[in-house]
Structure formats: structure tokens, C-alpha cells
Amino acid sequence: MDDSIEAKREFRLKMNDLILNKGDINIKRFFALDSRVYKDGHLSQKTKELLGLVASTVLRCNDCIFYHLDQCYKQGITDDELFEALSIALIVGGSITIPHLRFATNQWVTLTSE
Amino acid sequence: MDDSIEAKREFRLKMNDLILNKGDINIKRFFALDSRVYKDGHLSQKTKELLGLVASTVLRCNDCIFYHLDQCYKQGITDDELFEALSIALIVGGSITIPHLRFATNQWVTLTSE
Amino acid sequence: MDDSIEAKREFRLKMNDLILNKGDINIKRFFALDSRVYKDGHLSQKTKELLGLVASTVLRCNDCIFYHLDQCYKQGITDDELFEALSIALIVGGSITIPHLRFATNQWVTLTSE
Amino acid sequence: MDDSIEAKREFRLKMNDLILNKGDINIKRFFALDSRVYKDGHLSQKTKELLGLVASTVLRCNDCIFYHLDQCYKQGITDDELFEALSIALIVGGSITIPHLRFATNQWVTLTSE
Amino acid sequence: MDDSIEAKREFRLKMNDLILNKGDINIKRFFALDSRVYKDGHLSQKTKELLGLVASTVLRCNDCIFYHLDQCYKQGITDDELFEALSIALIVGGSITIPHLRFATNQWVTLTSE
Amino acid sequence: MDDSIEAKREFRLKMNDLILNKGDINIKRFFALDSRVYKDGHLSQKTKELLGLVASTVLRCNDCIFYHLDQCYKQGITDDELFEALSIALIVGGSITIPHLRFATNQWVTLTSE
Lengths: 114, 114, 114, 114, 114, 114
What we know:
6 copies of one chain form a homohexamer.
Chain A: H1 3-22, H2 25-36, H3 45-58, H4 62-74, H5 79-93, H6 98-112
Helix pairs in contact in A: 3-4, 3-5, 4-6
């Protein structure tokens, strides 16, 4: 396991706990909503994770890409599917998203070579 | 057919022609790339249009939503599938995307009630 | 009453109804959350509406500015308070926000001269 | 002269006056700064207007594109120069900027065919 | 004192000095404006810092959040007030702002437990 | 040579190779387009690099600023020209771009003092 990936996962969980502990009821409700929205429904969780990944990439948020890549990996998304989704993010979002493609590729290669 | 939808489609096509006529080779190549990226591949065109729609919604571009809704409709996407995709855009992008959900809903209702 | 302001309010309400009717449970919950978050609490509703207004201005969403200006007006915010809040949005967000200051000023003058 | 272009110019000036009249000293100073920054210096005004245009395009602000296109036209920028600048905005900003290329092309054709 | 917070404060000041030394008159004027706009006026400095914090959060800039949190702390803002302001940023800006809530929470806990 | 600058250059090249190796044909074409668009044409490469730098600054992408600063340096851009370009980015993009001015200034000073 890549240490920095593990460290990011831990910081994420620790801070989420702290936010839920400190935050008001509206923050708690938003967090609950944020986990429910990716569940299987009329669209599969796999498709939803790809939607989350592309949204995160065009909005250029590495921490969000990080989370959705973990989920994409758990959903059994293939290399080809992943890079087709990223190619859409790249065309929609332009070259400004390329640093995030680098980040995503680095993490994906780590995940898939474990 | 709703006139304003038809008018938007016409303006879009007319201006695209003008850009391709005036623009340099790099603009032409980008436009070619932009239409190729949504073709069937390892991911279906249907999934890719949903990716394009969600990307357009979180980036808050009505003209882009307009185009992808047209394509989603042609791909036979259902009401339930569409609104699940939009719910992900809403949670990722926040209340600032709500005006674009209104725009999308208005157009979708027109398209599906023709 | 300015007709276009009234028309915008009506479109907003009509589309919100349609979204709540068509949308899934997650969209409904988000909408509920979106109205609760501006209620009086440890910060006053007046302060919260200014927070919503400045957030909407730096994110450059006229429909959101429109809504929060209506609420600011109801909360009795003065011209001086409003323009101080907008001056922060302008300095944070830069000249790209100026068209939204024009939009906001036009609506505010209409609201306050009724 | 295209009426809608003229109408936009008038709304812009009228609202700027109102903002300067209503706004606080910080808004006034920002507006002064905003006009000074495009003046001839170590970079020519022509280059600076192209910088303003590309910044406005990748930030996707039609009102700002509108203003800088007017200035580009006054600076004698050619079709080829303009579309090369826009091609950079397109590659950097992605397909999400295409509606703004349509807007810019439409206005530019009007300006250059007067 | 948390070292990394102190290190960030130092880098910020050192680079500001360098920018003011290297930059042209327009940059200097902007920096002056940027510090004046948060001063007490018709709105209190406390309210203005919350406006700056929420603007920084929805625009997803950790360095800006960092600065405004320092100021919020100096203004005596409470935990409850802070998280209510952040909950508005979260609802307006969506889940894409969550990594910035984690950043803010981590810094706030450090500041308030010193 | 500053180590961290060299390390960034290496990571950039290594990840680009990996993306081109893993990515589909559309990603490859985009990358080709992205390098062609800054070549000398009706606008000089120098002007184009400034356009790329300002676009990267208002879109607030340090990795993109990093690349364009390297190119600006190779094009012989002077301190005065660079900071005039950055002053436009600052006025257009607002105080939210200041952390990126700090990043750019730090790198520029390193490059020009080698």
C-alpha cells in the first residue's frame, strides 16, 4: 500500500469525524446526502462514480478525484473505461485539467498495481 | 416544437460554421475532437452523454446543458436516470447549480412532452 | 413592481415545483437543506443572507444574486451595508464580477424605489 | 450599428455610473484600477486587451468578452490574431468555452462588417 | 504554535513583500485596496471576515481560507458562528468544497486549542 | 537549479508519458493540440505564452503557471512585462488569485537568479 494514499485516506476520515462533531445539523445532513447520492438506483453505482469522477475533474479538485478513484477501483472499472471518462473531462474542461489527469493517473497506477 | 429550442439549435449550428470558417486549424481540430469523444467505446454513448451533462451542470453552462440534453433524449435516457444524474451534479456543485437544474428541467419537460 | 422581476420570481417557483415533482429524494432533501441553512441561528438571518449574496456574486450566478437580493431587502439591509458586502465580493472575485454588480445594482435600485 | 450591441454598451455605462454613485470608496478605487491596468506600458495596450479577452473567455464571462472585443477592434487586431488568441482560450478552457466563442464570433463579425 | 501555520504565515508575508517590490503600481494599489476593504464600516470587521471566509471557501482557495480564519479568530468568532458560516459555503458550493472544510476545521482546531 | 522546480518538471514529464501510454486516441490528440497552439503564428510565441500564463492565473492552476513561467523565461520576457501581465490577471481575477501571484513570484525569482 502506498503510504501517502493511506495517509490521505486517514486524514480524510479523521477530519470528516471532526466536522461532524463540530458542525451544525445542516452540515451533518449534507454529509449524509453526499454518501446516499452515489448508491445504486436507476443508474448503477459504477456509472455514478464515473459521474462523480468527471465532475471532480472538471472542477479540478484532487481530493475529490482521490475519493472517486478509490470507489471506481472498488467498482471494478477498467483502465479503458477510466481513461475514456477522463478524456471527456479533458475535452470539456481543457488543458487546465491536465495536472489533475496527472494526479489521477499516478494514483490509478498505484491502485491497480497493488 | 418549442420555437426557442429550435432557435437555439440554429444559432448554435450557424455560429459553429462561422467559427470553423474563421478559426485556425487548432480550433478546427478541437471541434473534431469534441464530437469524437462522445462516440460509443468502452463506455456507451449514453453513459458519455450523462458524463457530458453532469460536467456541464457543475461547470454551470446552460448552452452545454442544452446540447447534452438533446443528446440524452436521443439516447433514450429516462426521467429517473436523468434526475439521478442531475442529483449528483447538485450535490457536487451545490445550490449554485440550481438555476441550471431549472433550465434543464424546463427543456427536458418540453423535449419529453412533444 | 418591475415585471421582469416578477416574471423571474414566478419562473423560479414554477420550476422549483417541477424539480421537486420530478426529482428523486436526494434532490428534495437538498432543497429542504437549502432553505434551512439561512434561518436565524448563532448568526442572524441578515448576516446569512449577506453571506449567500457574496458567495453568489463571487461564483457569478445572477439567478442566485436575484434571490438573495430579494431576501436582503426583506431583512432591511441598507444601501451602505449592501454595497460594502458587494465591495468585498468585487475585491475577492475581481473585475470578472463587475457584470454581476451591474445586475445587482439594477435590481436593488428597482426594489428600493418601489 | 447592431442595436443590441449598442444597447449593451448603454446598459454597461448607465450601470457603471450607478455603481460609482452608490458604491463605497473601495468600489470606486477598483473601477479606476480596472481602467488603468490596460494602458500602454511595458506591454502594449493591444497585447493587454488580448490578455483581457483570453482571461474573460476562460472565465466564461460574455459581458467581459463584449467589452474587450470592442477594445480589440479599436486596437486594430486582425481576424487571424483574434482567432489565435481565442484558440488558446479554447484549448486552455475546453469545450465549455465554446458557447463564448460563438458569442465572440457573432459580435466580431458584426463589428468588422460595419 | 503549530509550525506549519507559522511557516505559511511567513511565506505569505515574504512573498507579499517580494510582489510589492517587483510589481507595478497597479498591483500595489490592489494590495492596498485588499486590506482596506475588510475594515470596520457599515458592516463590522467581524461580519466582513465571515464574508471573506465564505467567499474563499466557495472559490475553494485554501491560502485565502487560511488568512481569513486567522482574522476570524482575532475577531473572537465562536465555533458555532464559524460552522454556521461554513455550512452556508457548503450548501452553496456543494461537496466539492468539503476538502476545504477539512482544511479549515484542521486549522481552526489548532488555533482555538493553543 | 532549485531542486523542487526540477522535481516538478520531472513529475510532469513522467506523468505525461504515462497518460499518453494509457490514454485513448482523444487524449493523445488533445495533448498534440495543446503543444501546437502556442507556436509562432500571427501572434508571437512570446505573446501566446503570456496569454497562457494569464489564463492559468485567473483559472488559479499553479501547475499550469509553473509550465508557462518556464516558457516565458525561455522567451526572454522581462520582469516588467511579466508583472504587467500578472497585474491584469490580478485585476480580472481578484484577490483570490494572490496566492498564485505568490507562487509565480517565488518561481520567477528562482528562474531569473540562476
